[in-house]
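As a warm-up, study this chain.
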Amino acid sequence: MSSRRNFIQQLTAATGAFTFLPFTNKAFASEAENRYTQFRAMNDADAVTDEDFWGWVKEQYTVSPNLLNLNNGGVSPQPKVVQDAHIRFYQFANEGPSYYMWRILDEGREALRSKLADLAGCNAEELAINRNATEGLNTIIFGLNLKAGDEVVVTKQDYPNMINAWKQREKRDGIKLVWLNLELPMTEDAVVQQYVNAFTARTKIVHVTHLINWTGQILPIRRIADEAHKRGIEVIGDGAHTFAHTDFTIPDLGCDYFATSLHKWLCAPFGSGLLWIKKEKIKNIWALLSNNQPDGTDIRKFESLGTRSFASEMAIGNAIDFHNVIGSKRKEERLRYLTDYWNDKVSNLKRVSFLQPKYKTGYCAISNIAIEGIKPRAVADMLYKKHKIHTVSIDWENIHGVRVTPHVYTSTRDLDRLVIALEDILKTQ
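Now compare it with the structure written out below.
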């Protein structure tokens, strides 16, 4: 009984206040607190370029010392403190699954909900914890009351899972999809105008991908939302690649509905996400899975997922703690600094072009580089086979290039390695 009581106390700490103590050693906790204090005392410019601090961050990950992972836009690794918490929760659950999962760990969700809401800058009663952005966005797409002839504005550059969900509703319910084809990179004004031009009296929903995963361009979602609301149009925000990547609060985006994955930029366990719905809109979305009040007003109706990984869910709190050591604003600035660092070194090379904009609010960690005369797949293959650098080639609609995505554990020395590899490719091809 004493052991279980201690674990519950640790669970409360892990999902409540800022602390690393529950699931790691005291030496690490002390070092984290010292780093936090020193980092906070710096001005922003020094903090972003303090390689000593970022070297410490790198040490907290278990990434391969040989393979250079520059595909963090797919899924991100977790720092050791999150891995350790995940393992501890998992082992605890296995001591008596039906009891410890449903009677103990499940009770930790409310504290976690509050902690996530604090990070997101929203009301905890507007936030549901689920498994990924796809699940959250599908919940919204299939839960909306739409009828034949209603128009939904989408783009060819949206994420395929969301495109397929909307096509399913089109096929099943007879709604009309209005397609935009974004010629990226674009100015903010041009993006907003293209959306506005698509709005009609029959438009009910506009689906906006906050950051285009193919190129890294950040869309001016608040401006699009404001224009939509002037016309009585609701807004869905796909935030899969912006939450814990760029510094914002969800309500400030102006969306009515929003979903994201937490296993990307927050570095939470794989298969973790959140769904946000403006409080007064919750009743308008039917629960995707069975619930006794599928059209009710409680955000928890979207958490009727059956048995799921409670260990993954509870360890989200530790990921938030680690994120908070850095801070959202400084994390964004560091990630943009890393992009600028390697972009600047190769921008003057012949045959090289970038597919993301260069104004500050238009990009952050994700870049897409194209090399004239070489197919994206060939570039990605050469980077991996010869230089052991993992990227991803993009051939989607009008976008053709190689996506490069560093993270907080990526060093400038790592990016020097990328630059050398790209120079080598240009010399030999």
